[in-house]
Each structure stands twice: as structure tokens, then as C-alpha cells.
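Task 17 of the worksheet. Students: predict the tertiary structure of the chain below and write it out as C-alpha cells. Keep your answer in the requested format; marks are given for formatting as well as content.
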Amino acid sequence: MNMKIKSLVLGTLLGGLTALVWSNISWELIGWHEKTLLTFQKDDEVAAEIASHTVEDGTYLMPYGTSKEAQDRMQKGPIMLAAVRRGGMGSVTRLFAVQVAILFAVAFLLTWLLLHTSGLSYARRVMFVALVGLAASVIVDLPNWNWWGFSGSFTAVDVADNVLTCLFSGLVIAKVAK
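Model answer:
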């Protein structure tokens, strides 16, 4: 097998497994994500209102529109960007399988990017992968904080978790992707 392909396969498999292990530690053992979330008062009533005012699963923005009235309402608040699943989460097994596929896709992309560098020491290859994670998180998480009011703590945990996922995966990927 071509050395580059072997490195890509090994980096994907081992980096993906590392990301999966870290993800489980991050979400199940540390539990820092949950600590950044708030709950509605009388959430049963809020759920009933959401169900009665949505027609399908999707991402909802309130207020919505570009009219002067919508802009005024946005300025005054409240605003909400919400992912609505009217029928609940569904199969946790399916969600977990999709998440595993996502982590392996990330490991594949990180390995592919790393294989397109040259002359870097092991430590610099690890740092490169971690910085890719930081860049990806900055481009997604900071605009959500800026525009939609995601809390600072929620954003900070997401950024830290993404960087740590890439750092830990990078420790393995940088070993095998040469």
C-alpha cells in the first residue's frame, strides 16, 4: 500500500478513535457542556407553545425578516435562534453512529491536511492540527456568539473542546502521518 494512503488510513482510524474517546470524556465524564446551558421556566408550557407554533423540524429565528418592524424587534429583543425537532431526538443509537462518522471524517481531513505539510517536527505537526481545530471553531463558534447571543461560557467550552479534540487527535495523527 502506498505510504501516503497508509498514513491517511491510519491517521483517520487512530485519530477518529482518539476523538471518540475524548468526546466521551468531554461529554460524559467532565460534563462541562451541560453546565453552560440554561433551562426555560415552565419548560412544558414552552414546549407546548413551540409545538403549536412550528410546522416542521428546522432552524427557527425569532423575530425573522428584514422589514423595519422585524429589525426593531431584533433590537429590542428577545431574539432566539432555535433548532426544533418536533418529534424529539429519535434514535440515540443513530445519532451516536452519525457522530462517530463525523469524528472519523474530521480525523480524515486533519490527516489529509497534515500530509500536505513538510519539514515540521512532531510537536509542530501536533500544533498544526490543534490550530486547524481552533480555526474551525473560531469560524463557527465566534459568529454564533456574536450574532445570536450564544453565551460566553457555552462558546468558550465549545472552542476549548474543539481545540482539545484536535490536539489529542493530533498527538496520534502526527505520529502516523509522516
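Marker's comment: Residues 3-40+91-176 form one domain. The longest strand covers residues 58-62.
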